[in-house]
Amino acid sequence: MFNQLTEKEDEYKKIKQYIINPIETGLWETTFNLIPQEQNSFISYMHNFFQQSQQLYNSTNIITVLSNMYNIANTAIHQSYNISDKDIDYIKSFIERYNIKMIQNHLIIDQEFIFISQTNNNYLKVLSLNKTLGDSLEKIFTELKYATLEKKEKRFSPKSILFQPYFYYTQIISDDLFSSTQEEFNYFNRAVSSYNNSSQQYLFNNNHQYEESIRMIGKAFESRLTHIYETLLRKDASHLSSIGKLLNSIENEIKNILENTIQPKKYTLLSLSKEISKKCQELEGENEQDSHEIINTFKEIANTLILENPSQPKKYTLLNISKEISKKCNILEKNNQDTQTVITEFNEIVKVIETQLQTTDNVLFPNQIQKELEKVLRFRNQVSHHNTTQSTQEDVISMLFSYIQIYLWWQEASQSIKNWDEDRKEVIKEFEKLKIDDKIIEFNSFLETKYIPKNILF
Predict the structure, then answer these.
(1) pLDDT per residue as tens digits for the range 147-188
(2) Distances in Å between the alpha carbon of 339 and those of 132, 329, 331, 333, 429?
(3) Which of 69, 317, 327, 369 has a Cα at 20 to 30 A from 187?
(4) Is residue 84 helix, strand or coil?
């Protein structure tokens, strides 16, 4: 654990920020050019030394080399092999000088976690939250004559790079993350076990079967939904045997509780086209000739929305219709003073559309969380319905990210409820208010938690 929390609290918070939003946090990518193997005298030595070991991997895997050096320096493994005292002293000195540690199979260099994103016979790429790791590795690789530095770059794109260590960093803070739920913590650990189905967990392109990991994340998600159902509705959820049933029951039962809520008017593309056509007919005979141009424009929009010809591309969505009508009304208002009726009528339509776009059909989850729910459900169905599409590593990471977003949203939102002793209807109303509170999606409570992680040694 932390020797002194104050020294590394910012570092731990940075990992949390990455878990919440890797794109916003970004990662440092350090690229090294590998020195030809025949020139790597020490690497070749380590390769030859461990050739009897069943855990030997390609000698270009620096993680294996450094891990073995750490084991030699800190265990009695060298007693089983013919290693000179001089070599042992050098290895111990090397490990101490560069502050190399191994914590639960994670390699740590100078208090920084190392994650190799790509490697081949010519180059090595390392991802980290801090630039300083690249500096430390440059010194290590220079001494070992292993590689030379090519470049360091802060990356905020693409996702395929930024999300590579996501499982890895989530595992680092898992004690903190799941401190309030042992069941979900257990499912997460089982997901990790399936995901890391090789001791070489650092290499991103290992061939794994990821279905089991997705199933375990799905189980954790089901546990979270059960908790939400029972907490909000104060009813036993044991009769709801699937994620789909849980989601539907949460939605339907909350709607029943709030059945007296007045539902605002909503449009579909078809109903909107009819509404626009109707308005055009009503206004066409009442307004001056100058208004006809704008009315004809709205007629074109209505005709396009009807989409009677299936081959015709869908030109409009509710959002760009709203923008189009607003734009036309502004032009008309500026150039014609006698068309106020047209402007007023179509601005009313715009207001309805804007209100609709700001709300969702669900009564509990904010738009962002609703999207994450749909993603988790899609990945879960992909493995539970015997889909022929093979799950990938990217699928697992994407599903984990969505699940974490949902998990943290609930933790944050539930802490924002002032009085859980109130009637459940009043509590649910409080959640409705939180749907439009962007601060909820910032997960401030999670970021500010002052916690000493049990599985990390600095």
Answers:
(1) 899 999 999 999 999 999 998 899 888 988 898 889 999 999
(2) 65, 9, 11, 7, 42
(3) 369
(4) coil
Which residues partner with 14 through β-bridges?
none
Task: Tell me the three state secondary structure of residue 76.
Answer: coil
Q: Is 118 left (phi over 0), alpha (psi -120 to 50) or beta?
A: beta
Interatomic CA distance for residues 49 and 455, integer angstroms: 31
Closest CA to 22 of 106, 117, 109: 117
CB 91 within 8 A of CB 69: yes
Residue 309 has what DSSP assignment? S
**Is 31 within 8 Å of 150 (Cβ atoms)?**
yes
Assess contact for 251 and 270: CB atoms under 8 A: no
pTM summary value? 0.70
Which sign, positive or negative, has the C-alpha torsion 152, 158, 159, 164? negative
Least trusted range by pLDDT, from 184-188, 251-255, 264-268, 331-335: 264-268
First-last CA distance in the chain: 6
What pLDDT band is residue 242 in, cutting at 50, 70 and 90?
Answer: confident
Q: Tokens for 85?
A: 């005292």
Query: Tokens 């776009």 sit at which residue?
Result: 357
Closest CA relative to residue 61, chosen from 121, 102, 108, 113: 121
Assess whether the previous peptide bond of 158 is cis (omega < 30° from 0). yes
Residue with tokens 């749909």: 374
Angstrom CA distances, 145 to 57, 60, 126, 139, 386, stand at 19, 12, 17, 10, 50
Task: Report the SS3 class of residue 364.
Answer: coil
Helix ranges, 234-339 (H):
243-257, 269-284, 292-306, 318-335
**Dihedral sign for Cα atoms in the order 413, 372, 194, 31:** negative
Q: Strand pairing partners for 123?
A: 33
Residue 174 structure tokens: 């898992």
Q: Which amino acid is at 160?
A: S
Residues 98-126: tens digit of each pLDDT: 888 887 667 788 777 788 887 777 888 99
Q: How many CA atoms lie within 13 A of 314 on its CB side?
A: 8
Instruction: Calculate helix-pair angle for 182-195, 393-416, nearest 10 degrees.
Output: 160
